[in-house]
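Batch queue: ligand-bound targets. Current item pairs a single chain with flavin-adenine dinucleotide. No template structures supplied; prediction is de novo from sequence plus SMILES. Inputs echoed for audit trail.
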Amino acid sequence: MKRNFYLSDQTLQHVLKKNLDDSFFDYANKKLESFGELVANEIDERAKHTDRTGEPQLLKYNKFGDEISTVWVNEGYRKTIEETYQTGIVGYVHKEIPSLQKKGNYLYSFAQGYVLSQAEAGFYCPVTLSMATAFLLDHYADDELKSRFLPHVCATGDVELFEGATFLTERQGGSDVGANVVRAVRDGENYRLFGEKYFASNAGMAGVAMVLARIEGAPSGSRGLTLFAVPWRDECGALNGISIRRLKDKLGVRAVPSGEVEFDGAIAYVVGDADKGLKYMMEALNLSRICNAVASVGIMRRALTEAQEYAANRDAFGRKLTDFPMVQDTLGKLHAKMEIELLTVFDLIKLYDRVVVGQATADEVILNRLFIAILKKETAEQAIHFAHEAIEMHGGNGYIEDFVTPRLLRDAQVLTVWEGTANILGLELVRLIRKFEAHRLFVNFIKKRLECLKDSSKKHFSILSAELEELTRTFEVFANLDEETQTLEAKTIAHKMALLYESLIAIESAIDLGGKHELLADIYLENTWSLRKIGEPAKSLQLFKSY
Ligand SMILES: Cc1cc2nc3c(=O)[nH]c(=O)nc-3n(C[C@H](O)[C@H](O)[C@H](O)COP(=O)(O)OP(=O)(O)OC[C@H]3O[C@@H](n4cnc5c(N)ncnc54)[C@H](O)[C@@H]3O)c2cc1C
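Prediction returned. Tokens below.
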């Protein structure tokens, strides 16, 4: 039987069934069944080729010596682009799904993204850049700009596709966006851009890029940044004053061309209010951070699948690897973390869907930002850990490029860097606590959801209550520290918050899904909070017997 990343994932099917109405679920279920097979087979094969021998190339000049700054991608990659966007992974968040006559949502899009990134985390990057571009145009562009670009960014085979891009980072720094110096010079009704963006993913592939630049005379720092929509080519197909200096030679995610881009008078259109550029981009960045978490759980799932399959088939000392307690323990713990982190990310996505359509309360809007920061950090770190464990489970083979495991590790490694490093996410946590007392919102959120579980899960309730009390005491000390000292503690606290959120989800899923999920919750809690004493039976081994 052919591999299928959707049909083999009962947890994802459960999430969709529980959160989509019947007709939407029937549609999504059917579409994901075929997408899950496509990704696990053809797209996976093409991804291997793109990574090893067919990566994007910069064609800087044509045969006459003219600058063309075009990016070549292989035939299979083109097919993957076409097939993926036609699923509506970007488009159906913003326009109607024809057969349902209503818009889709982020939950469905992220379900597709999670399946896709199990084979092509590199190409999921351009998809997420297109998602961010569509978000910015849909929310903030005026009608003229919207009608010009949005249908193309949301194309599903109906009109020409324009992939998107978001260019913030400059040579002097990516975290400190306020230091941006790319200039915007007035030209009639619009502007022309001059300067360089140093990390520009999807360069040469994007039809339109969302770019931060400083209008001449605007204040320094982040307040003086404006968001522009910049088409890659003009209406005649010529380059719009843009050139690519070079493509980066990267450790991983080789499917996405990341370039150094120079603007020399590129025509640029202001999006929204000229003085709110950074605010808009930060909103898009939060969407991208969820995409990052989705790609992370995709890599985690693939790493787990590969480790499980290899261990079940490999012999050592006359036994299968899966006969050894240490192997069972490793796989059991990874399995529990995987399922619960996936459910937690989708719990956040449910909230995000409400925030985006304006249905969330003011407190929930803050919680949404908080969860994005702590889960982006946690999932990215776990993706690297899972890829490392998958290599370990394969022994020497895990290090060899015939297997997918080295690519998983190389691709995972970028997830902690782009869309905000761990330190930058730690700073976001400090900001949210200082400005909005987000720590109190977090404690109340966990308490409220725990209260609903009190009767059905007594043993777990006490573990989580005790950990929450300890974190509350930590918050009391933290809140009284000066800002500089708070930054020192921020990452440890963010990690603890992620574990508490996940523990809540573990308990809820044990009640909601029952069966194997009760054991997965036990393993998760036992491992996370070091509950098992030496010599006691390990729940991870119990899980293995139930397979
Ligand atoms: C493959 C790839 C593709 C990319 N694509 C894009 C893209 O398409 N568009 C785009 O705009 N950017 C892109 N980036 C850039 C990426 O977003 C930045 O690399 C990232 O934001 C970090 O910025 P930096 O590299 O300048 O590192 P720096 O900002 O110089 O940071 C270096 C280190 O210092 C730490 N640091 C910085 N400030 C602080 C502080 N105040 N407190 C504590 N620690 C701090 C950081 O956490 C980090 O560990 C891409 C990067 C990569 C690797």
